[in-house]
């Protein structure tokens, strides 16, 4: 190299190659909220299309974050009978139900030794903010058994600070095995119909075997119950990405 | 407890008294039970008055929360909660620690004294 002003040129290290694999990783994990997928039936898909348009309209105005069952959320709703006209509730999401605009999620918390559950509608105009405080999936899709579990598993501090998210890609699965109160429970959770993996059953062996009597192993091979949502999901994802970019 | 299905409060439901009155907190060999609901239907929801049988006495009470799921956005409690009340609407206890739904505020005229002693709202 030609030296400038007679001095040796400063050593410039070559630029480090920065490999950003965002594209491939983004395509692998894209979250589609379960209420967008239409249920199996003979209704006109036009109805679901119109509902989806309304849902997208609402999502443009109000941000509904991605969450699963097992996350700890804080929801602020508008209420004419509250101080400051708005109230805040923190709880763990135990169930996500409903399709379309009537999609709901149930939050549970134990306040002053009293278990409280509130069923919120995702697309209700009364909801002012949804914050995800703790990102954590559990082993099951339905945490209704927390009602019969020891209250320590459902208590969450109302003034909990949001846990910072480490990776932008993976949501950690909490493999916690919950201990239950003594029987009787509201539902017989040991039966295979509920298929619960997140309970530490301390029942005697003969009771666990007796519960297996109600198992229906033929159900998973039943062809009339099959509902393949992969193609429907692809279509809806395309629709969503187009509409949200507008 | 023995009951399975969740209904709202009606005759012969066992309730949990939630305020700090002496009647509600002293132990007795029988749990407080509802004997009458002051309603057209015999089913009591949040904000209805009922007659309780506690310690061999009859006392009126106000329902503050039940196990039955109500309209969306309203809380559902894990136990049937009740606050002891006089005939004119004055509460007998002085403090209510358990959370109370905000919907009771709608009837501020009747329940103003009960709401005044409540600490937490849900």
UniProtKB/TrEMBL annotation, chain A:
Keywords: Mitochondrion, Ribonucleoprotein, Ribosomal protein, Transit peptide
Chain segments annotated as coiled-coil in the UniProt record: none
Chaperone in keyword set: no
GO molecular function: structural constituent of ribosome
One Pfam family it belongs to: Ribosomal_L19
Annotated compartments: Mitochondrion
GO cellular component, one term: mitochondrial large ribosomal subunit
Gene Ontology BP, a term: translation
Region of interest: Disordered: 1-25
Keyword presence, Transit peptide: yes
Family statement: Belongs to the bacterial ribosomal protein bL19 family.
Record protein name field: Large ribosomal subunit protein bL19m
Organism of this sequence: Mohoua ochrocephala
UniProtKB/TrEMBL annotation, chain B:
Any one Pfam family match given in the protein's UniProt record, by short name: Ribosomal_L14
SMART domains, alphabetized: Ribosomal_L14
One Gene Ontology molecular-function label: structural constituent of ribosome
Presence of the UniProt keyword Mitochondrion in the record: yes
Compartment(s) where it occurs, according to its Swiss-Prot or TrEMBL record: Mitochondrion
GO CC term, one of those recorded: mitochondrial inner membrane
Protein family according to the UniProt entry: Belongs to the universal ribosomal protein uL14 family.
Name of the protein in question: Large ribosomal subunit protein uL14m
Lineage: Eukaryota, Metazoa, Chordata, Craniata, Vertebrata
Recorded name of the encoding gene: Mrpl14
